[in-house]
Design a protein that fits this description.
Rossmann fold; 2 domains; Arc Repressor Mutant, subunit A; five-stranded parallel sheet; 5 strands; 194 residues
């Protein structure tokens, strides 16, 4: 059994939401929920936990865009936004807010599935990049702490950089901890003593 893609459609106009649902059903077997009111939108989307959010707005304002983008959780899931017309600043604001696909010129049934696929792919790509960036930042911070700890050991014990690192590593192994954890403890203790 395969998992069906769950889609939340945010659309206030019943005839437009029916058109969107029909287009989605024609494109594949999806679990579709329509939210027609913007009140408590964030909570309602979060309760559903969809794979993707599809928002259809005829003429968005900056405030409406920000509200919808925050509510749809673009860092948690892909968001595809369809608008009839837009200004450059609104397009930029939507993309900067994390919208995965911002389509001007309205929603057309034959373009719906490829756009959703592209939005999901783009979201996954950016999620991977955010994860890699966070890991890189964490590694850089750990490296800085280890370097500071080595410096403290070199000064206090009169040893070389290699010997200081070997001491940190040996202590980490003895305590079944990471080198960065031992280095952090040493730097914190040295800060308290100075």
């Amino acid at each position: 059994m395969t998992n069906r893609l769950s889609i939340v459609v945010v659309e206030e106009d019943k005839s437009r939401s029916d058109l969107i649902v029909d287009s989605l059903r024609a494109a594949g077997d999806f679990d579709i929920v329509v939210i027609s009111e913007r009140t408590s939108l964030a909570r309602r989307i979060s309760e559903r936990g969809p794979d993707i959010v599809l928002i259809d707005i005829s003429n968005p304002s900056r405030d409406m865009l920000e509200e919808l983008t925050i509510a749809s959780g673009p860092l948690e899931r892909p968001v595809a936004m369809f608008v009839d017309r837009s200004e450059n600043s609104l397009t930029r604001a939507a993309i900067e807010a994390g919208v995965s696909a911002y389509v001007v010129d309205g929603l057309q049934a034959d373009r719906l599935k490829p756009i959703l696929d592209a939005a999901m792919t783009r979201f996954q790509m950016f999620r991977r990049m955010r994860t890699e960036l966070e890991a890189t930042k964490r590694a850089l911070e750990e490296r800085k702490v280890i370097d500071r700890a080595k410096g403290l050991l070199m000064k206090a014990k009169g040893i070389s950089e290699e010997e200081a690192y070997a001491l940190l590593r040996r202590t980490a192994m003895d305590q079944n901890r990471k080198v960065a954890q031992v280095a952090e403890a040493l730097v914190t203790t040295a800060g308290l003593l100075s």
